[in-house]
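At this stage, I put together one protein's amino acid sequence and its backbone structure tokens, which the following lines show:
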Amino acid sequence: MTDDHGIPLKLNFFGTELRYLRKIALRVDKDSFVCDVRGIHQPEAPISFPLETLHFLVDIEDDVGLYLKKEWQEQVNHVLSEGKAVEVAHAGDYGRWSLTFLPDACQETVLILAEDLKELAHLQEHVRVADMLLQRLPSGIAVMDPAPRVLYCNPAVTAITGYLPSELIGRNPVFMKSPKTKRKDMQAMWRTLEQEGYWEGELWTTRKGGMDYPQELVMIGVRGNRGQLERVVAVFQDITRTKQNQEFMQYLSRRDVLTGLPNRNHFRRMAKKEISRVIKEGGTGTIAILDLDAFNLINRTYGHMLGDAMIQQVAERLKNFAGEEMMVARLSGDEFGILKSPTKTVKDVAEFAESLIALFAPSFLTDFGAAYQTVGVGIARFPKDGEDVESLLKEADIAMHAAKSTGCNQWKVFSKRLEGEMAGHFQMKTELFRAVKDEEFELYFQPILSLKDESITSAECLVRWANPKFGQLLPSTFIPLAEEMDLILPIGKWVLEKACSQLGKWKRDKVPMRVISLNISARQLFRSDLANQVQVLLDTYGLEPGELEFELTESAVIQDVRQAVRVMRRIRELGVRIALDDFGTGYSSLNYLRMLPIDTLKIDQSFVQDVMTDPGSRSIIRFLVQLSRELGLRTVAEGVETEDQLTFLKEAGCDEIQGFLVSPPISIIDIEKMLLGT
């Protein structure tokens, strides 16, 4: 085949081009039905026909001659006779095609246009899928010209901005710019897009109705053949929720969620600036740490919901107290920090501390009724005690712990002497941890004398700490520390087991010890399965339940009277005796004597010591002895030191006594000698 100039026409047959070739144009001679491409393609643009594509339309000879197949010759004759175009659909081995037979102007030939419908269908499917994605994407997508005017927008644009497509198409989107977005920033965005073809960032935009919102925006430039910007595709989304989450995380990094107060980190940052400012101006100030007394016990007894409610009420009182003049923060669970400036004199500091404590005089409202809370306050002054916030917080903390060690509703101001004392206190804590692990404790026993026959009927078991550094320490030295450190349970368990073991040994050795009396702490009473522990020990060491007596203080029982009664009843059901210790020194109520399942009433030594000089003490002792007799209780007087005291107690009808007149607390070996008379 040649073109009009006699140049052979190059025909390329590459099956791989079927993907790209969707249309074929052939000219057919009316007589010979020879197919030609004359006048359709230019020689400088060679034609590439996939061989297999042409098979359904033409027969291909070895010399690359193209002849129309017989099945299509009828269509050619019809077009030539009628002079009208004919469209035919074809489906066969080579796909789906659309054929158009067109009459030529000379009426001698017919032009056949064949279009591959399979490729068209693929293209249409791609378009359909792309359109579906655009319709369903949550991100807004808008197409603009360089003006820029909106040419297209998907439904997400309306969902985000509130504007319908009819309100956007043809308009410059700058009308949605928020006043929060500066014009120079918009100009820089378009300049970057023009130069680099891409911009990404955040802008503030205004919704229909006037509400501003933060927008994350990506702008992509589409360039023409000559490199000019022809289209701009904008992809954006509303990031209001993301910003809110970020703000909330920032809030959490600065604030305590429960109270809304600044947290420790934020307080440190604020205090650092304020302290620097005050010192620079030649002023003075105070940092106080306020800690709630025994707050863990409230959480354990009544639950964290009540504890949280108390913390919120404390925070509200502190905020109202501080106003705009002070800084207040929640430093930890039950610990608060307060910064006040100025505090010029010692009197100012004292008034500040007393005012903080006075905040806790009114009761707190809880689901269980009115509740009262005491505190400890530690104070550090700047610049006297230091100029950096970390040192001042540490010093205020030292003072606070020193204040709490002296009782409830106390306050202390930091000093170097106090720091030394608390360093010793810390060392004692470290030693106590080790002592519990290494069992550095010893049992001592104080005999109890029966006034009926003047025999040793029992003994109170006491614990001593044999410390290698500090020597032998009395319970008053380390038991409060053990309570503070939550070590009272392991210590109490050790004492109980060792006492039972010793009593079992005495029984086997025929040592005449009838009863051992043991002190039980509040935490043992409420936090451990005490009755089960006792039953195991009785069985292990072969003891009778009546050979044990547990001493409970009023202060322990009143923390939760109902629970205390339940535990005490279980213990008495085992046969173990119960004594109420230190009666008359705390929140004494005669109602307790009626309610509590006890066997013995121990009269506190404070009444015994004054019995010879104070008529009131004598009257109280007589009354308690008589009342106990009426209730069927034994009475034991503590702290008896003189013969006069002994004589009065005998006359009053007391059952038993203990004190230095009988014997101080003595070791296991010494009490064995006493009991055996050796």
